[in-house]
From TrEMBL:
It holds the Pfam family AHSA1. Belongs to the AHA1 family. PANTHER family: ATTACHMENT SUBUNIT, PUTATIVE-RELATED, BLR6751 PROTEIN. Residues 26-153 form the Activator of Hsp90 ATPase homologue 1/2-like C-terminal domain. It comes from Paenibacillus xanthanilyticus. This is SRPBCC family protein.
């Protein structure tokens, strides 16, 4: 991604069983990484607009489990289980979503002049036909989730 594209602040691309979102976050890399790795922060922004999350387990290490339930505004519960496969502070977090829809997610954090370039990529293990259906809610849901991350970071940075 060149500097002109980053100037637009955010971008999203949906490919063959992959969703990639890039954001230039107005926060230092360490703070952005902390927002992803501390349950007290993560629980405030993880999930689409209007959703809340209840964490049951959060073991931040390779092989560790992150179990939680996302609660929709309509009262529907969505149990989730992720297994961390790689943690490189403050550069990268990789986890596998172990329930439907199955995917591997990578959050990469790059320092850019006091801000953070976040690249969040999910590669789905489902068939193309299933991915065609999943992407209709997964792509906008991921965008809304990262909007909520940006709002939390603005709040944390103002303290």
């Amino acid at each position: 991604m060149n500097e002109n594209q980053m100037a637009s602040h955010k971008s999203a691309q949906v490919g063959d069983r992959e969703i990639a979102i890039t954001r230039l976050l107005d926060a230092p890399r360490e703070l952005a990484f902390e927002a992803w790795t501390k349950p007290e922060h993560l629980s405030k922004w993880w999930g689409p607009q209007g959703f809340t999350s209840t964490f049951q387990r959060f073991e931040l290490h390779p092989g560790g489990t992150w179990e939680f339930v996302m609660h929709s505004p309509e009262g529907v519960d969505f149990p989730n289980t992720n297994v961390f496969t790689e943690i490189v502070r403050p550069e990268r977090i990789v986890f596998r979503h172990a329930v439907f829809p199955h995917f591997v997610a990578t959050a990469a954090f790059e320092e850019q002049g006091g801000k953070t370039k976040l690249t969040y990529r999910t590669v789905f293990e489902e068939t193309e036909a299933v991915f065609e259906q999943v992407k209709t809610y997964a792509a906008p849901g991921a965008e809304q989730t990262l909007d909520r991350l940006e709002a939390l970071l603005a709040h944390l940075a103002s303290k």
